[in-house]
């Protein structure tokens, strides 16, 4: 049975949740798909490029504290991937919305080294979706990113596997839970800062919460979705973006009291000229609209297709395990064929 060498680049909330889920789902992966794994590389900005060619122990992975076995320790991503004999790179470093770096360089290095890439980092799709997908195709590997936009909500796989040739004309989404939480806290009489702290406490805020409240995170997500699902080439500057920072507390409370609370809504629409227009802005949501039931950390997407006027997906209260599952599902889908052919030998 093939044992896949996994490398975790980024070992923060998501990377550690993934390590725990890999351990928890080992039986299912082995029994249902013939997939065996070991984590041979872990890297973070502060800890550097750690490797363990025989695999880090389960105890280390579960505790989130790993110690490198390699001497000398690799000093860059290429050396690290080689030392760890990486089969699959999980890229979960922090989002850098303007350039998508260094996550793009990490993904490129892994594909060039012959590894599959599974990422939760949206920057890679916004800034390099075509390049990385083509490189993956050229190398016979997969570049997968289901966890990047809405944890484990199956969006990309839905269009890839289940809705072939359906044309997407528009979509809208509540894609950022920090802003929903902050607006709800303000509506309940608390301050903006208390709202941000609540989102941080829930573990949903980006490393820098300004990315959430100023609409960058939602803008990155709308670009990612439009570029992959609509064949657009949107960059962040193409999104007409307004965050929630300049909403007045009284406005937020009045809208909530009137039964049409504000939510940060991201939208994209394919216009008649063939161009995709995208916005992110606070909208008041009426009770009959698809996003009316979206509260707290719930995320939702509503699609308009040529074959179906409306399709709404709602992900209720996702957590870190849900994000980790998005990565795990991509991993299984990327390698199950390989694992099967290895067990047939
Ligand atoms: N949290 C969620 O619910 C969620 C959901 C979907 C997608 N995502 C995406 O998943 C990614 C990770 O999120 P998170 O919540 O796990 O963030 P996090 O807790 O802040 O962890 C980020 C990790 O990346 C490492 N890192 C950052 N820059 C690096 C660099 N240049 N080189 C090597 N390592 C680097 C950090 O190392 P240091 O700690 O040493 O700085 C840390 O280990 C982000 O792109 C985020 O947008 C998160």
Descriptive report:
With 345 residues, the protein is an alpha/beta fold. It has 2 domains: 3-152 and 321-344, 3-Layer(aba) Sandwich (Rossmann fold); 161-317, Dihydrodipicolinate Reductase, domain 2. The protein is built from 14 helices and 12 strands. The protein has helices at 13-24, 26-33, 58-63, 77-83, 103-112, 123-139, 147-150, 156-162, 177-187, 192-202, 210-213, 216-229, 249-257, 320-344, and strands at residues 3-9, 36-44, 48-51, 88-91, 116-119, 143-144, 168-174, 239-241, 262-270, 276-284, 299-305, 308-315. The strands form 2 sheets. A 6-stranded mixed sheet has the order 3-2-1-4-5-6, sandwiched between helices. Strand 9 and strand 10 (276-284) form a beta hairpin. The longest helix has 25 residues, at 320-344. The mean pLDDT is 95. Residues 10-15, 43-46, 92-95, 102, 120-121, 147-148, 151, 204, 206-207, 320, 323 line the site of NADP nicotinamide-adenine-dinucleotide phosphate.
Any ligands, ions or cofactors bound here, and which?
NADP nicotinamide-adenine-dinucleotide phosphate
CATH first level of the largest domain: which class? Alpha Beta
Number of strands: 12
Mind telling me the C-alpha Rg?
Answer: 20 Å
In short:
This protein is of the alpha/beta class and 345 residues long.
């Amino acid at each position: 049975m093939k044992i896949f060498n996994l490398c975790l680049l980024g070992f923060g909330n998501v990377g550690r949740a993934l390590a725990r889920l890999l351990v928890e789902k080992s039986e299912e992966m082995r029994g249902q798909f013939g997939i065996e794994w070991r984590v041979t590389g872990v890297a973070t900005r502060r800890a550097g490029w750690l490797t363990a060619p025989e695999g880090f122990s389960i105890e280390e992975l579960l505790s989130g504290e790993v110690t490198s076995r390699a001497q000398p320790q690799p000093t860059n991503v290429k050396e690290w991937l080689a030392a760890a004999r990486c089969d699959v790179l999980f890229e979960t470093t922090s989002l850098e919305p303007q350039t998508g770096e260094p996550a793009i360089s990490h993904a490129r290095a892994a594909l060039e080294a012959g590894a599959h890439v599974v990422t939760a980092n949206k920057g890679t799709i916004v800034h390099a979706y075509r390049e990385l997908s083509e490189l993956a195709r050229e190398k016979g590997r997969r570049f997968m990113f289901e966890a990047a936009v809405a944890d484990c909500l199956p969006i990309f796989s839905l269009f890839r596997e289940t809705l072939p040739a359906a044309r997407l004309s528009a979509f809208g989404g509540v894609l950022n839970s920090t802003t929903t939480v902050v607006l709800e806290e303000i509506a309940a009489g608390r301050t903006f800062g208390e709202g941000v702290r609540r989102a941080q406490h829930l573990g949903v805020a980006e490393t820098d919460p300004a990315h959430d409240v100023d609409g960058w995170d939602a803008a990155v997500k709308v670009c990612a979705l439009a570029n992959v699902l609509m064949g657009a080439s949107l960059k962040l500057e193409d999104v007409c973006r307004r965050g929630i920072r300049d909403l007045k507390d009284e406005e937020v409370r009045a809208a909530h009291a009137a039964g049409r609370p504000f939510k940060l809504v991201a939208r994209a629409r394919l216009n008649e000229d063939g161009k995709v227009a995208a916005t992110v802005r606070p909208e008041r949501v009426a009770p009959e609209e698809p996003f009316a039931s979206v509260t707290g950390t719930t995320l939702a997407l509503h699609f308009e297709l040529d074959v179906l006027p409306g399709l709404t997906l709602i992900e209720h209260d996702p957590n870190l395990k849900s994000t980790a599952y998005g990565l795990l599902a991509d991993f299984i889908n990327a390698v199950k064929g390989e694992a099967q052919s290895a067990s047939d030998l």
